[in-house]
Amino acid sequence: MINKITLVFLFLGSVLHAQNILDEYPKGQTFYKGGEVTFYKEVHDLLKEKKFSECAENEIYVARILVTDQGKVKVIKDSDVANIAKNKCAHQLSLEIIKGLHNWSPAEVKGFQFGAISEFVLYPKDVMSNYKEGYMASNYITAPRYPGGYKAFSKIFNSNFKSLFNDYVIKGDVNLEYYVDENGYLTNPRIYPAIHEITFNQNALRAFQRLKKQWQPALYNEKIPLKYKMLHGLNFSVSYTDEEGEARN
Fold it and tell me: What is the largest CA-CA distance in the chain?
């Protein structure tokens, strides 16, 4: 188990940077020209034009994508086969959307275009029969909650990671990304930029595993649980700094 997830920490980060791909979009930028409202409007128009059947009311899917520096889009393979099976229709529609839309927008840094990782939430009912102008899925999502609140999580996070960080001579900002799944469990940890130190990644994984207390999962429209990405910013310097955790969907 340790070796498998350590490879996620090391390999994925190194591949992304080797190909000039950003781990996330810079603040204020989005994966689609015109932003989230335009994206869901074009999703609605596409599904209506193609006359796709609407999914069951409880189906929802979070699609993870890579938009290249040329404005092309690629699907990042989802290893959560159980979630795909439970939301088979929504998953299939997300693939049709990725194939059928064309106004994908690469990231931009200092005038240069880069590929970047992002994701979108698809609740088919709200982009089909329930669609309303101005719809954005993010307006209907409630972030996951840790038992006792963020301060309680920050305390346990610091107690598990602070001593680890003090043992390694690493400077600068790094990010710990993970997901709270639809059952409230933490999954898919990833540190980026990648730290090419095997023992650090092994120890970071052990520290992460000690955080695995069940959360209240994210909810769509206060009733449908969904997988939700979390991002915890860390700073390595002479003294350890814990930046406030930030949720990303």
Answer: 59
